Predict the 3D structure of the following.
Amino acid sequence: MPNHVPLRSLLLLSLIQKRFLKTSASPSSFKVQYLIDSCGLPSQLALSTYQNLQLDKKNLPNAYSVLQVDSNLKPKFDFFTENGFVGQLLPQLILSNPSVLRRALDSQIKPCFELLNSLLGCKENLVVALKRASWLLTVNLKVVIQPNVDLLIKEGLPLDRVAKLILWQPRAVLQKMDRMVYALHALKSMGLDVEDNIFIHALRVRIQLPETTWKKKIEGMKSFQWSEEEILGAFKRSPPILALSEKKIRSLMDFFINTMELERQNIIACPLFLGYSIDKRVRPRYNVIKVLKSKKLIRRDKKMTTLLTINEKNFLTNYVHRYVDVVPGLLELYMGNGKTKKKDS
């Protein structure tokens, strides 16, 4: 390696290595301008990046060979830009996975782009997937991604669902083959059809849970007096419930049963309830409906389970904004900022 590594290469390596250390409060305008010109950073972001990045000299032994700007980096930057990584997307990609610039353009990066683009259907989806999981570009394509994709298609998962799985849970196609096989078998043994819309949602959850964790989740749900049959039935209708923490489920179950006085079967019938936020959705709606019922503005037999499921816009329109003049403080109560006030006579 030459005794003197070009300054622009050192700065790029500092981005790639992601070593965030304190630096001088008076950055060189040349260095900041280089970040703007070479990496596409807006001026404010370039200044902030310079102030928070400093090269760790212990990581310099291969700096010159790795960071040949014209022969190594520029072709990769050009390729990324041509494929949708423009503006801030390019530096964000590099910072999220610096090792991508150490991968060969022709034998690694391009084949990954081609495979993902063929599955996802357009560059826009490709950009979304790589923003969520930039390491899709640096794994062994033939050993990891391709076998899992081939298996999913062989097992009958429609191609558009494979694309959605990669978009929503890219980590799924990076699992070891035996884990993917096990997850598929487990879901099919529950009676889930690979062509059902719910299948990929169930796969997203099942593949990320080792068997020991899965069993703990089941036992945790049993502590709420759910049978295993009820738990698996709820999972098949709303797979994310088994990805929730026991603390969240316990908090919601307590509120549903002890405060709202819902029957256990109401929750089992609509496990989606367990995915709601107690502070942003459940409690505010309950507080509003309780007030409206107490003032006889809505029927007392209005089912709370129905009111939990309607979308935010409809709830605000039909149960908050409609009554704000009749019930002062109702909007504040819903927003969690106060209590209802007595209306002046």
